Amino acid sequence: MTGRAAEPVPTDMLISSWGVDAARLGAALRPRTGAARMFLAGKLADDLSGSRGPLEVVAVTERPGEVTEHSFEPSSITGCPVTVAVTVLPLDTVRSWSVPLVRLLTGPGVLPPEMPGPVAVGFHALYTQRGLVLGDRYLDAELEEAHAEVMPLYVAARQVHRLRRNASLADRPVARLTVLVRALLGAWGYCNPYPATLAPLFERAARRQRLAPELPATVRRVLATSAEGAEVRAAVAQLEALCAADPVLRFCENLVRFAPAGAGAGAVSVGG
Questions:
Q1: Which of 125, 147, 206, 256 is deepest in the core (most CB within 10 A)?
Q2: CA nearest neighbour of 8 among 219, 194, 236
Q3: How far is the C-alpha of 272 from the C-alpha of 268, rounded, in Å?
Q4: Measured between alpha carbons, how far is residue 259 from residues 110, 236, 243 in Å?
């Protein structure tokens, strides 16, 4: 048994099958979000969700405050047949992260701290740019300055930092494999923070990179079962070779080499 889940359904088909009225949903959420720009989030943002949902949404709002998460049971909000999960992301939080993100490119040796999980969910949604309400331009100018396009590079750099600064990974091949996969996905333009997306995204990326199918198949088995052994060690060696040859990860190596040893300590890891 490999733990393979049901095949994902394209997000546009799911939204249609659920009968989601985006404008009504936005209006129903307004007491929690205020005026907000809504983006599809989580698995939906990468076409990895299924018919059981949930409908994951990030709402970017000018309303000040903390990042908050809300869940609504099926049919409790505008008749949506699946759970609606909403992350409310204040624009002030977006702005506070935009500067350290862009400094990855402009400030040699400057590595941002680890991003709290709900913020990572929000920036992933900003990166994928799948709006819930078609044609919505609210906060366009402000969101152009969020530098969410740097998010995959940020994920790659944080994972390289973990590889170089966490000596215990050498003795934990499954954990090392997970970090290597996250690093490669960041280098290849992916930044979904949910662990359940690692295997399907790596399979997707491996096809685009024209890798032999055996490696992503092994990665899926290892992530599903946490089984150790010769197969895992061989996969780790292959992933390390891919990392060593990747130009984005070589750039990240330089960032990490000059970053302070304690960069990011104490924060919540992206992707858990």
A1: 125
A2: 194
A3: 7
A4: 6, 25, 19
